[in-house]
Amino acid sequence: MSANFYDYVRGISDQVPLGYSPNGMRAYRHLVYVGASQMVEAHFPELREQLGEDAWRELIAAFVRDSRWSSAYYGDMKDAFLEFIAIESTRED
Predict the structure, then answer these.
(1) Residue limits of the Putative DNA-binding domain (predicted)?
(2) Are 9 and 28 in contact (CB under 8 A)?
């Protein structure tokens, strides 16, 4: 799979890669977002409640888009999320 595929699925790009249907790619993007949301919430259930739905959606979208998460295993997501939060917490607004 190409970098364009991964960039679209992660929300880095909104350009559908050649050879793929827009509906199929939106489904992939949604499934990655839902998977990330569920896995992060499984480890940090209080966080979603504390943030509220809008902030939670923004956080998960930013994590999927901007994190260094590259493992094919959802089980590795907890460590990638903690790394993402640590990096984000050091950035200046």
Answers:
(1) 3-85
(2) yes
- What mean pLDDT is predicted for residues 52-81? 90
pLDDT at 92: 61
Q: DSSP for 32-93?
A: HHHHHHHHHHHH-HHHHHHH-HHHHHHHHHHHHHHS----S-GGGHHHHHHHHHHHHHHS--
Torsion of CA 54, 23, 7, 48, to 10 degrees: 20
The C-alpha angle with vertex 30 and arms to 27 and 34, in degrees rounded to 5, equals 140
* Residue 37 to residue 39: CA distance in whole angstroms: 6
Q: CA–CA separation, 38 vs 29, rounded Å?
A: 14
Q: Radius of gyration of the chain from Cα atoms?
A: 14
The label of the residue with tokens 């790394």 reads 83
